[in-house]
Amino acid sequence: MNRRLPLLITILLFGYAFLYIPIVSLIVYSFNESRLVTVWGGFSTKWYGELLNNGPLLSAAWLSVRIAALTATLAVILGTLAALALVRFRRFRGRGSLEVMVTAPLVMPEVIIGLSLLLLFVAMETVIGWPAGRGMTTIVIAHTTFAMAYVTVVVQSRLAHMDLSLEEAALDLGARPIKVFFAITLPIIAPSLIAGWLLAFTLSLDDLVVASFVSGPGSTTLPMVVYSSVRLGVSPEINALATIIVGLVTLAVLIAGWVLWRQEKRNQLDAH
Amino acid sequence: MKLKQYLPPARNLIIAVPWFWLALFFLLPFLFVLKISLSEPILAQPPYLDLIREIEDGFVTIVVNFSNYQLLLEDSLYLSALLGSLKVATVSTLLCLLIGYPMAYAIARSPSHWRLPLLMLIILPFWTSFLIRIYAWIGILKGNGLLNNLLMGLGLIDSPLEIMHTPLAVYIGVVYNYLPFVVLPLYATLIRLDLTLLEAAADLGCRPWKQFLLITLPLSMPGVLAGAMLVFIPVMGEFVIPDLLGGPDTLMLGKLMWIEFFNNKDWPLASSLAALLLVALILPFVLLRHFERRAEEAAA
Predict the structure, then answer these.
(1) Residue A180 maps to which CATH number?
(2) In B, which residues are within 8 Å of A223 by CB distance?
(3) Is the CB of residue A9 less than 8 Å away from at least one CB of chain B?
(4) Per the UniProt record, which residue ranges are transmembrane (chain A) (predicted)?
């Protein structure tokens, strides 16, 4: 193995450079004085100031955060139910169709999800009068539909590797099933619920295509604002926005990594 | 499995709630795509004529209109968009595998306490905004962008390379964004690989590259195929990357559908393009399900 070590390290260095050079360049140029994104004009934080004064962008960001939080919560509930059904109940009517329906959104092109849901919403509005118009509600429904598939995958793997003896012990001692679920099952799968919530939140916050189809007038999300300003040309404010997002994500990942690391350490100590 | 014996009423609810949500908001919409793709475009709100029309009170008629599909067949634009999507999806899947396989291999063979941070570093860019990652590449690839400035500063080229708005830019964007989807399943299969097989082969005098070809590669095929499908299927309908990095000659189904819908307001034609794309994706999707099921069986 040792002979091949330099080769493996080189591969990893090149791979990670490819992944990170674009992100690092965004961060560096967000502090660039010059409006020309690629010409260095000295250090400045003025684009962050401009970002904070950009009203439409801020209100779009606020809308996106609310949509993402609602989506993530709904997706965790639905995704957990789907995962429970698939892991705990071996045979039931509709198992095959449920399996297909939770796998397909993972790979389904966004243009198809967006268009098909829009046509459904339009048809529903003419027949039953709901949803009246399109906006936040329709975006949340659309995002939940594809985000729950990701939650299902995450929760499913946790449930499949979970030790059932605790649940059985509680049931044998006479605890009611609903109590067993909330007192034992839920705490055990909690890390995967949090991971699924965060994943659904990010997916929703990041979605341009589906939201463009199912949004209405007055419900412009952050990616729509970013997309139109990117189409108009490269703008330094977007660099500043990107840097803030990268910072928040890195912070979240570091905290999550630290929590996981501590948990693992504690488990190791318990085991000894 | 004891819980289920105690939970018959809850059991039905646990199954029914996600099932009906997905049936209503994922499955049913496809029927509307089919329906609208068979209707006529009009200038109204919504911009299509319903298939079922009332002629006199009580009497209804169904008018089916195949002209959208006829147009897809007759106008070579749509065929070349289908071929363009297939080409971009195939080439970028291969590129992702060529780059992702060595990375997944290197991570799986690294010391165990390095693996989690290395995997986290693969996933981290995926958590930052997709649009912003594409936008970063615009700044690097454009005429007076970072790459050209660097190469000209080093004296390697005299005039800027034209990468933006070419197929090459689309490939770079796709590979950049879809790389984690290849690395993760590949890592999952490579980490489960039984290393004693390689040791046995080495003891019997098998050369390292032959060990790779005869043992590692065949055993990692489920990961290769799952990763390939996770890239190929969504890229077939990709819109943002060809729109922002590609040029006017980058024809892909997703982009064309977007244009028909948002620019030309032709909902029926956009729907028939969506139907075409769906049909093109059924085979790869069935393959993906097949490999997933095999992976599940292998894990169980």
Answers:
(1) 1.10.3720.10
(2) 129, 131
(3) yes
(4) 7-31, 60-86, 98-124, 136-159, 180-200, 238-261
Residues in chain A with CB shorter than 8 Å from the CB of B130 are: 206, 208
Burial class (CB in 10 A: 0-12, 13-18, 19+), B51: middle
Nearest to A46 by CA among A232, A248, A239: A239
- Put simply, the answer to whether B144 touches A38 (Cβ < 8 Å) is yes
Q: Which sign does the torsion angle of CA B102, B103, B108, B111 carry? A: positive
* A18 assigned to some structural domain: no
Query: How would residue B194 be classed by pLDDT, with cut points 50, 70 and 90?
Result: confident
pLDDT tens per residue, range B75-101 = 888 999 999 999 999 999 999 999 999
Task: Give the pLDDT confidence score for residue B150 in this predicted structure.
Answer: 87
Report, as ranges of residue numbers, the positions in chain A whose pLDDT lies below 50. Answer: 1
Establish if A3 belongs to a structural domain: no
Helix axes A136-160, B8-22, angle to 10 degrees: 130
pLDDT digits (tens, 9 = 90+) for B247-283: 888 889 999 999 999 998 899 999 999 998 998 888 8
- Spell out the residues 6+ positions from residue A55 whose beta carbon is closer than 8 angstroms to its own: none
pLDDT higher than 60, residue B13: yes
Say whether A253 and B120 touch across the interface (CB within 8 A).
yes
B255, closest residue in chain A (CA to CA) = A111
Contact between A49 and A31 (Cβ < 8 Å): no
A223 close to B (CB below 8 A): yes
**Is residue A11, in this structure, part of any structural domain at all?**
no
Residue among A88, A101, A241 minimizing CB distance to B27: A101
Return the residue in A116, A127, A139, A162 with the most chain B beta carbons within 10 A, the one to mutate for interface testing. Answer: A116
> Smallest Cβ distance to B239: which of A25, A111, A231?
A111
Domain that holds residue A50: 26-33+41-271
Question: Which of B128, B134, B140 has the highest number of chain A CBs within 10 A, making it the mutation to test binding with A?
Answer: B128
Q: What is the pLDDT of residues B49-81, one digit of tens each?
A: 777 776 677 777 777 888 888 888 888 889 999
Question: In one letter, which amino acid is B202?
Answer: A
Distance of residue B205 Cα from the nearest chain A Cα, in angstroms = 16
B292 or B165, higher pLDDT: B165
CATH of B73-299, picked from 3.40.1280.10, 1.10.3720.10, 3.30.565.10, 3.40.140.10, is 1.10.3720.10
B294 neighbourhood in chain A, CB within 8 Å? none
> Cβ of A229 under 8 Å from any chain B Cβ?
no
The position carrying tokens 């500063």 is B153
Nearest CA in chain A to B141: A22
A60 within some domain: yes
